[in-house]
Amino acid sequence: MRINGKAAAPGAGTSGDAYLPEHGNGGYRVRHYDLDLDYRIGPNRLSATAVLTCVATQALSRLTLDFGEFRVSRVLVDGKPAKYLRRGLKLQVKPVRSVPSGAEFRVEIRYAGNPKPVPSRWGDIGWDELTDGALVASQPVGAPSWFPCNDHPGDKASYRVNVATSSPYLVAVTGNLVSRYQSASTTRWVFERPEPTATYLMSVQIGRYEDLALTGSAWVPETGAEPRGVVQRAAVPPRLRRPFARDFARQGQMMDALEGWFGPYPFGEYVVVVTDDDLDDPIEAQGMAIFGANHVDGRRTHERLVVHELAHQWFGNSLTVADWRHIWLNEGFATYTEWLWSEVSGGESTEALARAWYLRMRAKPADVTIGDPGVGRMFDERVYKRGALTLHALRGEIGDPAFFALVKAWAEENRHGTVTTAQFVTAAESYAGRPLDTFFTAWLDRPALPPL
User: Fold this and answer.
1) DSSP for 124-165?
2) Strand, helix or coil at 411?
3) pTM > 0.85
4) So what's the pLDDT on residue 6?
5) Confidence of residue 224 (pLDDT cuts 50, 70, 90)
6) Which CATH code is given to the segment(s) 210-313?
7) Distances from the Cα of 48 to the Cαs of 74, 147, 193, in angstroms?
8) Structural domain spans, the chain
9) For domain 321-444, which architecture applies?
């Protein structure tokens, strides 16, 4: 199971992302996506209509969208037919009339085809078939595999996603389920994601899953009982229900701990999906985390991954990096949360884990600056672990009261926004009450590992 472009049209510009300039598009921002999907599982056939509500940031005679290899049958701009042209993974659109700067406009695209992942340096990423169903794993470039979009993490929008598929299958989308209609052999599921969301964090999961609800700290079948606190749900293959009940039994306590450290959970609900296939790594999505069958063994072997993915709901999803250079802000926080959870749940202390990982990082080549690791090392282990070590060193530098006040304020004050390393440095200096240039230069801008 494999899980884990062309230049923009003249006048449209590019995203300007230093790492992935071929993804994302200039000249406009998307405010809302309305996606109407009809998916046939056996033939892996998707027929869809996407309506994008956008705002022009400059006068546009044409614009481009990131989009996979589908057959496009119609493109409208503000209800009028527009000319369009496919160039690699770009859809170039020329409206009848230019769009003035600052104007809101709507782009409607009707398309169909067999969705498949987008090739990338990290493998094939995006919509993928399971043995019996489908999943979407989009980080960082897979969103165009299933809908036309402005595929850049800094362009966050709200979503409405309508999915029709065979009734025996459960559908989970990164959003709040607002309605479900069954007619004959097909069920239509409608989800809304009101919070600003990056394209790579949108996901669709389709499988023969059992719908479970979390009440207190135990996962039980949906019985109408009211969950306490944050609504937490799961979609799990029936054969994995028993080991899942043990592996995820502490999900409620995790949520309580993370809300204590980082403030209120930032979304309407949290959904865990366990596929019936193995996955190389869990998949991060907004308000959702997806695990493979191999991550469920009934022995809590992978509990650190469970808390890592939950932490991403604050760091990565609610707070999304303005561009990919700042990815340590996602992965460093999620990894450090693993260490914090280990200590409060009776495992190794945060200090012991930091010391152990420091020794392991010191044994590796000093050739990565985690504040700007380069596109080839965005997902390097050192970005994760040295990112966490940076936070642990900062905690030692400014003390526990200031550190935990800082991280809670960081999550709450930037809720549903985009963030950069420079913003975090400024916030840290505010809570430290003094400049921290030397500290952050050593940890983020130099490849050599500083003393812990």
Assistant:
1) EEEEEEETTEEEEE-TTT-GGGTS-B---TT--EEEEEEEEE
2) helix
3) yes
4) 32
5) very low
6) 3.30.2010.30
7) 11, 8, 18
8) 28-207, 210-313, 321-444
9) Orthogonal Bundle (1.10)
